[in-house]
Amino acid sequence: MATRLSYAFGSIKNVQKFFFSSLATSQPESSNLVNFSNQNGIYKVQLNSPRTRNALSTEMLNELQSIFKVVNEAKVARCVLLSSSGSKVFSAGHNLKELTNETPKTHHELVFSTCTSLMKLLIDCPIPIVAQVDGIAAAAGCQLVAMCDIVVASTNATFSTPGINLGLFCSTPGVAVARSIPMKLASYMLYTGLPISAEEALKAGLVSRVVPAENLELETQQVIESIRMKSLPVMRLGKHFLHRQLKMDIMEAFKEGENIMVGNLQLKDAQEGLKSFVEKRKPKYQDN
């Protein structure tokens, strides 16, 4: 990689202390399955179990839940960067060892309910979630990617829902995937189990940008930096409405959009942005 982002990581048991102890840059901590840091409101979350191909075990899912519960409540949070350690696998999905008949049905139920609880936290996240994908995103790993707002992928990335190959239809991953790409391609992925390339995922709308692997860190950093420079209340207002309007009739959405924009104009940051345009300078947002 041409550039490596600097991570300062923390343990889940100290997550509350970690996130609220500093509004600027967090202090280094240690973690087993998920690395995380807070640097000036940019919350970096890294799947860190290369030995299991970053499998979304119940333990990892619980760690991710703990992090996103805090992120969703953090008033200073501006953006989430979701990535993984290693360059071959973003996440291979659920830990299949937890899904055999050697574990009881109650544990199977726990695996999927825990994952669904995490999906709800991602849906409720008030700030943009940016995924950086370099390698395989399969099954629940592909589901996780599909739930992010922006996805920057390397040309090495592939996306698949291969459960059908093992006699287990990717039902829950299909919920996220089928809401992100056309049904014909979702059906291809779900019924055949075959992967699609990063370029195919880009054309379908599953990812936002595709770059060579050596440029992935730089491209992702540019996306994060662009988000960081925006007004925080406007960004939160915008994301909330963008997702809410999808459930509305189109004319209802337009009418509600009118109200949102008029309200947006009452914010000091909106007036500062307009004033800076007239004065041909960069805006100085106060995030209020």
Automatic annotation (TrEMBL):
GO BP term, pick one? fatty acid metabolic process
Where does it localize? Mitochondrion
Record key words, sorted? Fatty acid metabolism, Lipid metabolism, Mitochondrion, Transit peptide
**Function statement:** May play a role in fatty acid biosynthesis and insulin sensitivity.
Report if keyword Mitochondrion is assigned: yes
In the UniProt record, which is one GO cellular component term?
Answer: mitochondrion
Q: Which domain of life is it from?
A: Eukaryota
Q: Which SUPFAM superfamilies match?
A: ClpP/crotonase
Tell me which Pfam families the record gives.
ECH_1 (PF00378)
Q: Give a GO molecular function annotation for the protein.
A: hydro-lyase activity
What name is this protein filed under? Enoyl-CoA hydratase domain-containing protein 3, mitochondrial
